[in-house]
User: Fold 8-oxo-dGTP diphosphatase from Streptomyces radiopugnans.
Amino acid sequence: MPYDPSAFPPFAVTVDLVVLTVRRHALCALVVRRGEPPYQGRWALPGGFVRIEEDLGAAAARELTEETGLRVQGPDDLHTGAHLEQLATYGDPGRDPRMRVVSVAHLVLAPDLPTPTAGGDADSVRWAPVDALLPSGGGPDRSGEQPALLAFDHSRILADGVERARSKIEYSSLATAFCPPEFTVGELRRVYEAVWGVALDPRNFHRKVTGTPGFLVPTGGTTTRQGGRPAQLFRAGGATVLNPPMLRPEV
Amino acid sequence: MPYDPSAFPPFAVTVDLVVLTVRRHALCALVVRRGEPPYQGRWALPGGFVRIEEDLGAAAARELTEETGLRVQGPDDLHTGAHLEQLATYGDPGRDPRMRVVSVAHLVLAPDLPTPTAGGDADSVRWAPVDALLPSGGGPDRSGEQPALLAFDHSRILADGVERARSKIEYSSLATAFCPPEFTVGELRRVYEAVWGVALDPRNFHRKVTGTPGFLVPTGGTTTRQGGRPAQLFRAGGATVLNPPMLRPEV
DNA sequence: GCAATAGTGTCTATTAGACAATATTTC
DNA sequence: GAAATATTGTCTAATAGACACTATTGC
Assistant:
């Protein structure tokens, strides 16, 4: 059947953002409170419409800046800003009760930030531990407080984003996107521990990351911000894929 | 800014398919010839509009069946049919000169098939080696024949699909999706060799795949369809992730 | 000194990869 | 027998993980 440009089903296209960071040893996601129906008062992922002349990635970067003030890592400033990549697209016909919306979800990995501003409305945006947002993540010792699920299909989108982050830090250097421009091996290890939810041997971890070519570059400085013996400071090296990969302790 | 259902930018949403198979030791993709402008006469990936009440995955499965007669693997028939997964979404404002089209690309891995039918028009659909379709894949000994690039941004979509397939057979059992329901270790090895474009040691490969739990299940039968000593027949085991992974020989 | 974190060294069980050797078919 | 493929076995270098030990700070 030849396709007719004048008669195609109209869709709305949005971007939704899974923005992850590590705060106080916990993997956290950015959520905003919905001010109107449907799902009024519920938490949701930040996002919005793609403009008619705007690329998908540009729309995601724009929404990110609007909601958090955070900038996306450009080709120049390789060691500041957040990492952004496309995650997946969600287009179930019933996912939005008002109309047919196809949402192109994006994943953002950001260093720990001061509490976001959300265009001035500080009460309607917050960092929430993903364990508290996802049904299965509660664990046995979590005191039963199961908050309302995220609006729409955002729980599933968040779960997909978290799983992507967990698997991607295995074989890429993306864990450094959670760190400030300069960081110690211990800080990087705590990122892995928070994202994977496991404890790692500090000694083997140190040997492993410093021995992986291109992963870390020493800056010469040291810091004692974690207490104890001063630690060398590093920045992210040029490598994007890690060979050998970091191995997640077996399940 | 609250979002107004009555005023959103209208988009067309399509699905495009990267359908891969292995034929005569080569990784091949399904392409169709365009019968109308733009890019009239050029080869393109199969695809079409998502219907207004249709899920994205369902649209992809429908297009696949329409173009090839191939069925997608359901939850029941785990060892027949093709594997389908979402690949990525392409929405550059200029990617289609006629209008704003967002395409949700899907990846299909299929066993070797009789030449597809394309709704009866056998001249406008074919399997083409991906090396011949992708600019960089030509290699030094290919006799200079560089066919016209695929229409739209389909070269990039195809390249992304091929890369996804190459990396995914490392840590998942998806290589079996390229095989018939029963296959030998040698046939599976030739799939890996074709997809990665490398030669693998048959002896180490055999030990590796038969030793990975859940990857292969012997059916009891044997075959000599490859010549030589009869080989055991296997079907895909229940495992979806491979532990340990198959390692692509280093680059 | 004690507690905390950083960093190095060593041992062992496992594994990837090279490759010899044997098995079973077709011609 | 020759050629082809399948399958098992063996050896070696590299590696992951466990863990002892030392180093350097703040209290």
Chain B has two domains: 5-171, 174-236. Chain B has five helices and nine strands. The beta strands of chain B are 12-23, 26-33, 43-44, 47-49, 83-90, 101-109, 125-129, 216-223, 231-236. Residues 75 and 81 of chain B are 11 Å apart (CA to CA).
